[in-house]
Design a protein that fits this description.
Length: 114
């Protein structure tokens, strides 16, 4: 299980770098994307390793549920439940970042109206 989690974290980092390298956005968009990617990777690092493994397998590597259940040795229902809880955990880890961005956007909108 530990090797699966380590491989998943490495794959997530490589995936984020690949996306970042392929972008031809303006410099400010690239900076925002890089910052967002870093926050997601940091949040993944704070999520329980069992949750991280299923998140990466499904949402990064594209495993289907049956493949994941076989690799992890879990019943399908347990896997789906774990993935749901993993997504909630990741959302909770990202919430401060998301709320900070929302507040910043509202502040910028108010300034542009003045």
């Amino acid at each position: 299980m530990a090797r699966t989690v380590d491989r998943a974290a490495t794959t997530a980092t490589a995936f984020a770098e690949r996306i970042r390298d392929n972008c031809q956005d303006r410099p400010d968009q690239q900076a925002e994307r890089r910052e967002r990617d870093e926050h997601v990777i940091e949040a993944l690092g704070r999520v329980d390793p069992e949750y991280r493994a299923v998140l990466v397998m499904r949402d990064v590597e594209g495993f289907d549920y049956q493949q994941m259940a076989e690799v992890l040795g879990l019943p399908l229902g347990t896997l789906k439940s774990r993935l749901f809880r993993a997504r909630l955990a990741l959302r909770d880890e990202l919430m401060p970042y998301l709320l900070a961005g929302e507040i910043q956007t509202k502040t910028c909108d108010r300034k542009s109206k003045i």
